[in-house]
Amino acid sequence: MKRLKTDVVVIGGGTTGIGVLRDCAMRGYKTILLDRADLAQGTSGRFHGLLHSGGRYVVTDPESGRECAAENAIIGRIQPEAVERTGGLFVVTPKDDPAFGDKFLAGAAKAAMPVEEIATSAALAREPRLNPGIKRAFLVEDGTVDGWQIAWSAAESAKQYGGQALPYHKVTQVHHLNGAVTGVTATDLKRGETVEIDCSFILNCAGPWAGQVTEMAGLPPVSVIPGRGIMIAMNHRLVNTVINRCIPPADGDIIVPLHTVCIIGTTDHPVTDPDHLQVPANEVQQMFDSGEELLPGFRSARALHTWAGARPLIKDDRVATSDTRHMSRGMAVIDHSTRDGVSGMLTIGGGKLTTYRLMAEHIVDAMEDQLGSHHPCRTADEICPGNQAGHNYLITHRLKDREADRLESPIICECELMNRQMALDLFKSNPLASFDDLRRQLRLGMGPCQGGFCSARLAGLACQEQVMDAGRATGLLKLFLEHRWIGLWPILHGAGVRQAALDAWMLQGTLDVAHIPSPARVEPDPISDAPIDETWQSSGQKENQ
Amino acid sequence: MTDTIVVGAGLAGLAAAIRLAQGGHKVSLLTFGLGGLPLGQGSIDLLGYTHPAGSSHPTADDQAVADPWAALPGFIAAHPGHPYALLGTDTIKASLAWLAELLPDWLLPSDGVNHLVPTALGAMRPTLLIQPTMSWPSDAKSVAVIGFQQLKDFFPELMAKNLTQTAQVSAKGYLLDLPARDQEVDSSALRYANAADHPDFVSRLAAMIKATIEPADLIVLPAMLGLASLDPWRSLESTLGTRIVEAHLAPPSVPGLRLNQALTRLAQASGVRLIIGSKVIGYEGEGDCLRGVTLHQAGRDQFYGADQFVYAGGSFESGSLTVDSHGLVHESLFHLPLVGLGGDRPLIDGDYWSDQAIFKVGVATNAQLAPINPDGQIVWSNLRVVGGLLPAAVRWTEKSGDGIAVSSAFAAATDLLNQTSPKKDN
């Protein structure tokens, strides 16, 4: 068992939690963040990648629209490398009411959001795949953003101020004594170790899982209604500008060009269990139909991967719970001292990735109110490490890098231009990483072949460089293939089927991966793993030998 | 002379074309791509694994097949819709014997049992007909697995460690710094094979191996020891005085390219007219008689008429079978009726390791491999469907793809030759 002491524990390693870690650390609090899985593996890594201009909300939720517009500018300043300045278009398709465009303009003016109506011919010249029948087009300052990069660069910044992020640490107990928070018990899932952390403040940033945390504290559960939305990544960037449908928020109303793909989203269905999100066949068809409306021929384009995310919406009694899209996205901070008589604990919900920094500022302000101390929030002023002012992401960056080092390091993942050295560097800095942990940082296996070629290479490399033994490398390879399949089978058609068959020929046919023995368990399961007991620990160790 | 068109230049298409041409037909082989041989492992599989009855999960419960001929009757009984059930053991046996005779330089005579060939990941993969370079000596106790820093698809350390379990040997991995071409850090096995076709590369490789490895009973290298011939392999073996086995790795497959090259040359030598890089995009026919196909060529589309047709377009991996965005499955050229769509399982499910039902979908045929509709009526009486288009097999898990390709092509060609043999006498 390990014992740590800190001022603040942040529970939840999504962008909100990491933003809170950074803010607390910058204000001088000793802070530890815990997440049962990898950083930004939940909702923050399962959205469409839109950096909102605010346009989506200016009509229905002007307050959100205003916040988005302001935060968009701040993120572009403090984490420019994670942002691509694609611009966005709101288009009125032949099926939509052109009058909504007037409401849109009026809302934008009220929210002080820059917008310009352009000729449909100009929109078509900019994005030739757009439906040629569009009736109006509005140019806005949408961008795209990599949720994982936002998380890591904010975590790096927090680290410089002494903040500590501990992924794969599952909180199992929240302790309070005489109405005040005293600490948490967590399980270090990768090392199989119990960690006790003494603290005087807990900030619950678990998003869709926030209710589970308050329950662990023995408090009446915070009512979170996870809103499930599916996304489909299409191979290639069918558009280079974010394309929004100029209608009230609806299913399949946006296509976002992100890295080498473009992503269509999304749907919205209230669910009870954020751990098991389905991608229903009817919603897939809905996305294809909507895509067809914005970009004719969409159904014939290649669908690459699908996933579902859970919106972290805090229940708002003003609207029915069956319609989560219209619940306020405005963030809510819940103070458990007034609500439940336990001081030193706050829960935050709602919000969206674009406003993650602002959410962090709010909850840390609320914490300081309770503590009776006040430090200015400086998260909007300081650029995060690994970023260079004004230097935004460009899709061609990796190509440029590989051109430069092509005679030094072979390319392991051709689809995403990831080379051997990149994999090695990350393995060395994080020897316990699974292939999925690497994927979130390096993007390997996320391109057209979906791991068909690169996954076996990665296993070979990891073993060759003695990062891990053959059993773990083989096991991680199998696990990676299983995990990739989760996002493949619900959308498998067209060229995707062809690729899946080719990959099966290579990995199962030629290399016969299925018949190589490997340990049954090579990675912890953040969802089902229980607190440590002796049996679990000993079997975990045996497998690692 | 009978005009026959074969569509598709994989193992099935090449085998059908050669057999028909050798039987006296005037054969045109039309193909868009290169066929699947350069993507496969370059040995001839018959049947490598069976699942226990009722299991569709090909990992834990699988049984490796040691003697495929002994296993085949039981397999056929358990899989009534499988191409092997349609063709029967005698035809399958005759077809593989015929193929082995066609390729005496490239395939060892079969001893009737499966060989185990190592893969880059360290599996020991069962297969029936092997190239001379793939013969794993059963008395090998110590193995040196040798790869190249510049060849990313071969993993000596991982392979060696896994071989200790799968082959019950002691094995050690070595990584040599020997580029296939000067300064190249990223080379395919094909580049290495091209290099190995030059004797000085083999000499350098031999010297480097001698200087690097500890004594071992057996050396395993990635399959790259020669494309033009197997002389590089022979010369390395004799120089080192140690037996050498080539392991399977991801494509491009050098052993697959060897077979592809040999069969393509045989086809040309037998008089087959090879038209490559052009896609068949349409067809014409009357009643149940196909008259010809339209080939999409540079400049214009060209109609090719013939008396008989063999369709060897492959399966989902080659695009002959497709799934549209609504989830409907199609045969993309002749729009032939499919079977395997109405099972009790969904076509695709979320278990990566299960045999997905979609990949068992194929063209419905009668015992002569003519396509039939759901009433059992023949769609085109002068068309035969062979290879990956046939239903009910998951070829990569069964390790049955080559056997299905060769035996169906052999049976179709034999049938077509028999039908036309009276005409030949005129």
How many strand units of chain B? 20
Overall pLDDT confidence of chain A: 92
Q: What's the quaternary structure here?
A: heterodimer
Arithmetic mean pLDDT of chain B? 95
Rg estimate of chain B, integer Å:
22 Å
How far is the first residue's CA from the last residue's CA of chain B? 9 Å
Q: What is the number of helical segments of chain B per DSSP (H or I, 4+ residues)?
A: 11
Protein structure class of chain B: alpha/beta
Helix proportion of residues of chain B, in percent?
25-40%
Would you identify the regions of chain A where 5 or more consecutive residues have pLDDT less than 50?
Answer: 316-328, 534-545
Q: What does the overall shape of chain A look like?
A: globular
Largest interface: A-B, 57 and 63 residues
Largest sheet of chain A: 9 strands, mixed
- Record the strand order, biggest sheet of chain B: 11-2-1-15-20
Tell me, what's the shape of chain B? globular
Strand content of chain A: 15-25%
Radius of gyration of chain A: 23 Å
Helical stretch tally of chain A: 16
Spans of at least 5 consecutive residues with low confidence of chain B: none
Percent range for helical residues of chain A? 25-40%
Topology:
The complex is a heterodimer of chains A (545) and B (426).
Chain A: E1 2-5, E2 8-11, H1 15-26, E3 31-34, E4 50-51, H2 62-78, E5 83-84, E6 88-92, H3 100-110, E7 115-118, H4 120-126, E8 136-140, E9 143-145, H5 147-160, E10 164-166, E11 169-177, E12 180-188, E13 193-198, E14 201-204, H6 210-216, E15 224-235, E16 242-245, E17 254-258, E18 261-265, E19 269-270, H7 281-294, E20 303-314, E21 332-335, H8 336-340, E22 345-349, H9 356-371, H10 397-405, E23 411-413, E24 418-419, H11 420-429, H12 435-442, H13 454-464, H14 470-486, H15 495-510, H16 534-543
Parallel strand pairs in A: 1-13, 2-3, 2-14, 3-10, 6-16, 14-22
Antiparallel strand pairs in A: 4-9, 5-9, 6-8, 7-8, 11-12, 12-13, 15-18, 15-19, 15-20, 16-17, 17-18, 21-22, 23-24
Chain B: E1 3-7, H1 11-22, E2 26-30, E3 49-50, E4 63-64, H2 68-78, H3 83-87, H4 89-102, E5 115-118, E6 124-127, E7 142-148, H5 156-166, E8 170-176, H6 189-196, H7 199-212, E9 218-222, H8 231-240, E10 243-247, H9 254-269, E11 273-275, E12 279-286, E13 289-296, E14 301-305, E15 308-311, E16 321-323, E17 329-331, E18 338-339, E19 362-363, E20 383-385, H10 395-398, H11 401-425
Parallel strand pairs in B: 1-2, 1-15, 2-11, 7-8, 7-9, 9-10, 15-20
Antiparallel strand pairs in B: 3-4, 5-6, 12-13, 13-14, 16-17, 18-19
